[in-house]
């Protein structure tokens, strides 16, 4: 399964290098750096994060509908 790692560019707890290394260790991992966000992007921009999750789920091998996940 694909894995999207969302990393706020202003994250003071997890460096970009660590986030990048984590994504690289996953066979289908992809790092997305979120401009203007910090360590808690789902709290800082819930609509933006939900949109990214919906997009990922809609392109997965067994697409799920957002309604199934209450997003």
In short:
The protein is of the alpha+beta class and 71 residues long.
Description:
There is one protein chain. The protein has 71 residues and is an alpha+beta fold. The protein has helices at residues 16-25, 41-44, 46-58, 66-69; strands spanning 3-8, 29-34. A two-stranded parallel sheet has the order 1-2. Helix 1 (16-25) links the parallel strand 1 (3-8) and strand 2. It is flat.
Feature tags:
71 residues; alpha+beta; two-stranded parallel ribbon; 44% helix; 17% strand
Q: Sketch the major β-sheet.
A: 2 strands, parallel
Q: In terms of per-residue confidence, which ranges show pLDDT below 50 for 5 or more consecutive residues?
A: none
Average pLDDT, rounded to a whole number, is 86
Subunit arrangement of the protein: single chain
> Count of helical segments?
4
Shape: flat
Query: Termini, distance in Å?
Result: 19 Å
In angstroms, what is the radius of gyration? 13 Å
Order of helices and strands: EHEHHH
The share of residues in helices is 40-55%
Structural class: alpha+beta
Q: What share of residues are in beta strands? A: 15-25%
Strand order of the largest sheet: 1-2
Beta strand count: 2
